[in-house]
Specification:
The chain is α/β, with parallel strands linked by helices. It has two domains: 187 residues, Rossmann fold (3-Layer(aba) Sandwich), CATH 3.40.50; 134 residues, Rossmann fold (3-Layer(aba) Sandwich). Helix content is 50%, strand content 14%. It is built from twelve helices and eight strands. It binds ligand L6N33NVT and fe (ii) ion (2 copies).
Length: 369
């Protein structure tokens, strides 16, 4: 009989898998590639919560006819020789974390990247981890602040995949790390480094991806977690309350989203003739369409069109060493009992396990089934 992915095998040692989960991106900056990506994204009930029939009509009759072309034009402006910045950055983070862990974790482990929408899918990442005999998986969403539309949606994709799996691994999930000291330090380091090269602004704007206002009313902690990250980053940078602002970007649709909107904030700062504004996006672990086009290009246009002075976008954490270090710290906080950092003890444990497995396989191969 054909064995399924991740099928039990007596003779192999179990590993711990780390599944880095991010949002995903289209395969190409074209309307043809944008259509299935947007269809998958915007059909997610965690992302759009309005009644299905009404939304089905709006999505299929209006949005999927107009948005793919418009979004493709935006993606074309930020696409690189390595493809989508979000995917290229997430791949680098995966490889760097894998390398970083190899110097610190003595137990067998594997790291894979899965995207909630598009490729490589979360299902393909889980299949790769299971093929490497990972019997335990830590799901690490690359969203520091929890939102149902990002974090919970990534977890939905994990459960949906596991529903179709016989030999389900043990699962742990990281809910958030908006106030983790290593994450805040990585953010503060990146801003300080930017300022040491480019000088300081009159105002620092911390811009987070928006979500509909009703999600806050229904109990989503995202708004509060963004504010806490903002406050901790300001404290780490020694900023007073009048030196920084928190705003929310990327409003989608007609409903009210979290306020203040970034566009209105930049418009006001421009009208107030602020001499220099820097914008940082602490919620995005990788640069992507939302930072490189909406913040670095559109934001600059809004600020300066309204009379503002210099405008700087401070890059996302991407593959900064302090961020890879923070990813390691956050992962390790959630891997207690699953991995060891003590090489000699772990080596002895692995040798013992191998011997026990060999003996067990031998005795079971002799036993009647
Ligand atoms: C913090 C992370 C994110 C949350 C929360 C989030 C919510 C959310 N997004 C949309 C609609 C769109 N977002 C789009 C792009 C996009 N969104 C995030 C992150 C979060 N979204 C990222 C990192 C990106 C960029 C992806 C890339 O390829 O670079 C898009 C697609 C682009 C476009 O057509 O504008 C849409 C659409 C909603 C409705 C929502 C919460 C309800
Ligand atoms: Fe989004
Ligand atoms: Fe956007």
């Amino acid at each position: 009989m054909k064995k399924t992915m991740g099928a039990f095998d007596h003779a192999t040692l179990p590993k711990t898998g780390i599944l880095l989960a991010n949002l995903g991106t289209p395969d190409a900056p074209t309307a043809k590639a944008l259509r299935p990506y947007l269809k998958q994204f915007l059909s997610d009930r965690r992302v759009v919560e309005i009644p299905r029939i009404i939304w089905w009509l709006i999505l299929n009759l209006i949005i999927l006819n107009l948005r793919p072309r418009k979004s493709a034009e935006k993606y074309a402006q930020i696409w690189t020789s390595e493809g989508s910045p979000l995917l290229a950055n997430a791949r680098k983070q995966t490889a760097l974390l894998q390398g970083f862990l190899s110097q610190r974790i003595a137990s067998p482990y594997a790291v894979e990247l899965g995207m909630r929408y598009g490729n490589p899918s979360i299902a393909s990442a889980i299949a790769k981890l299971q093929a490497q005999n990972c019997t335990r998986i830590l799901v690490f969403p690359l969203y520091p602040q929890y939102a149902a539309s990002s974090t919970a949606s990534a977890l939905d994709a994990v459960w949906d995949t596991l529903k179709q799996t016989r030999n389900v691994p043990a699962i742990r999930t990281i809910r958030n790390y908006h106030d983790h000291p290593a994450y805040i330090k990585a953010l503060a380091d990146s801003v300080r480094e930017y300022w040491s090269i480019n000088g300081k602004p009159e105002k620092l704007v911390m811009s987070f991806h928006g979500v509909p206002r009703y999600t806050l009313d229904k109990g989503d902690p995202y708004h509060c977690e963004c504010h806490k990250t903002g406050r901790l980053l300001a404290e780490a940078l020694g900023l007073s309350k009048d030196q920084y602002l928190i705003a929310f970007q990327s409003r989608f649709g007609k409903a009210e989203w979290l306020k203040p909107y970034l566009a209105a904030t930049l418009e006001k700062l421009g009208k107030d003739q602020v001499k220099r504004v820097d914008v940082v996006c602490p919620g995005f672990s990788s640069d992507c369409l939302e930072t490189l086009e909406e913040i670095a290009m559109e934001g600059k246009e809004i600020f300066q069109h309204n009379g503002g002075g210099e405008y700087h976008y401070i890059p996302a954490l991407n593959s900064r060493e302090s961020w890879i270090h923070a990813m390691y710290d956050i992962a390790l906080d959630n891997l207690h009992g699953w991995v060891s950092t003590e090489w000699d003890a772990e080596h002895a444990r692995q040798e013992g396990l191998k011997t026990a497995l060999r003996a067990q396989a031998l005795s079971e191969s002799k036993a009647d089934v």
